[in-house]
Write a structure and sequence with these properties.
By secondary structure, this protein is of the alpha/beta class. It has two domains: about 260 residues, Type I PLP-dependent aspartate aminotransferase-like (Major domain) (Aspartate Aminotransferase, domain 2, 3-Layer(aba) Sandwich); about 120 residues, Aspartate Aminotransferase, domain 1. The strands form four sheets. It has a seven-stranded mixed β-sheet, with helices on both faces. A two-stranded antiparallel sheet has the order 6-7. The radius of gyration is 22 Å and the shape is globular. The structure holds pyridoxal-5'-phosphate. Pyridoxal-5'-phosphate (PLP) binds next to helix 3 and helix 4. The site of pyridoxal-5'-phosphate has 14 residues, from helix 3 and helix 4.
Length: about 400
């Protein structure tokens, strides 16, 4: 009996050949394959600029740096997400404020966010940025956050690590891909193996702002500038005849080495060709799970808002464990014994000891209620229909 994890990558022979081709080429670190991958992500998302980097976490950190977020600034983040969504603000010395989730979509609630934004204005320390997260692949309430941004003038970083390939419809009936709509200042993707496409480790920021894209690129590579015309110390940069000295570069910011390698980008280029196919299969699996659990009231299925085409990075079901008469740990163990992997996405960040001193879980009732019931069950493109059937039967028999 094969074990079905909650998520896993799909690597084809074409992927392997693409990586081997780069291994035989002149470039191993960032080179032409990275640029090709960035162009492919622009094409797939409809974004104008894409900046590849070493992970989704690095992408979030770069977004914070490009947004000039620093000490004393305040950043709003939802409590239900991976810790990286909040950590990026702390890397820059900013304060993290958590805004509770909407108990239907499980994404950051525009209403709770508004309350924090208003309170911050009253306190004389307005919020500098909001990080929204498209939990499990369901886009956040995009238009509500665009309106809040207009009113409160914050930088909007969209953590779309779960939602590559999702779409949503605005109130004029226009359908947008994640990354296409220019209202979020920056949109961040991860290419970790359980995500829609993988580069092993890897991430990308897409934006419609050339200025932000340039800043992201500079911060990605040590804060170093190599462009003629962008130098500050021209006396050192230029020869007597006005040409640039061939060895010259300038470090103008405190940047990092967050580059993606060409080896990884080659895998990304090969994988992205199957993005549409992958997302379609995830939707098919989710539809099939929905159908099978329809008659089983012990499992609550995720809500999909009107106009949203979910990307189903995760399939999170909700279970009232007390009503079932088993703890979540017991259910997870039983499912594991049946060859089914599950996980909890996520432990609320304010519960983490690092954040617990500055945030009180009592302020996040929706996040807490969700956390008590959440269980991610397998959902990944290579699952067969038989696997889907096995997952459903095992969940139903475990909870019955
Ligand atoms: C919502 C969210 N943001 C950020 C990240 C960080 O991405 P990475 O693992 O590529 O650093 C993840 C990773 O799982 C995530 O789920």
């Amino acid at each position: 009996m094969n074990f079905i994890p909650y998520g896993r990558q799909d690597i084809t022979e074409a992927d392997i050949e693409a990586v081997v081709r780069v291994l035989r080429s002149d470039f191993l670190t960032q080179g032409p394959a990275v640029e090709i991958f960035e162009a492919a992500v622009c094409r797939e998302t409809g974004a104008q600029h894409a900046v590849a980097c070493s992970s989704g976490t690095a992408a979030l950190h770069l977004a914070v740096l490009a947004a000039k977020i620093g000490h004393g600034d305040r950043v709003i983040v939802p409590p239900i997400t991976f810790v990286a969504s909040a950590n990026c603000a702390r890397y820059a010395g900013a304060e993290v404020l958590f805004a509770d989730i909407d108990s239907e979509t499980l994404n950051i609630s525009p209403q709770t966010c508004r309350k924090l934004l208003e309170q911050a204005v009253v306190e004389g320390r307005p919020v500098k940025a909001v990080v929204t997260v498209d939990l499990a692949g369901h886009p956040c309430d995009m238009q509500a956050f665009a309106l809040l941004k207009k009113e409160f003038n914050f930088i909007w970083i969209q953590d779309a690590c779960h939602s590559l390939g999702a779409t949503w419809e605005d109130n004029l009936g226009i359908r947008w891909k994640i990354g296409e709509w220019p209202e979020p200042d920056m949109t961040v993707f991860s290419f970790h193996p359980v995500k829609h496409i993988t580069t092993g480790e890897g991430g990308m920021i897409v934006t419609h702002s050339e200025e932000l894209a340039n800043s992201l690129r500079v911060h990605r590579s040590h804060g170093i500038v190599r462009d003629v015309g962008a130098f500050i110390n021209n006396a050192e940069a230029l020869s007597a005849d006005g040409s640039v000295n061939p060895w010259y570069y300038e470090m103008q910011q405190l940047g990092f080495n967050y580059r993606l390698s060409d080896i990884q980008a080659a895998l990304g280029c090969s994988q992205i060709e199957r993005l549409g196919q992958y997302v379609a299969r995830r939707r098919e699996i989710a539809a099939s799970l929905r159908l099978k659990f329809e008659m089983f009231p012990r499992v609550k299925l995720p809500i999909v808002a009107d106009g949203v085409e979910h990307a189903y990075h995760l399939c999170i079901i909700r279970i009232d464990f007390a009503a079932v008469g088993a703890t979540r740990a017991e259910v997870m163990k039983r499912l594991k014994a049946a060859g089914i992997g599950t996980q909890v996405h996520y432990i609320p960040i304010p519960m983490m000891p690092f954040y617990a001193q500055t945030a009180d879980m009592a302020s996040f009732p929706a996040a807490l209620a969700y956390y008590r019931e959440a269980l991610s069950i397998p959902c990944f493109p290579k699952m067969t229909d038989v696997d889907v059937e096995r997952v459903c039967s095992a969940v139903i028999s475990t909870l019955s």
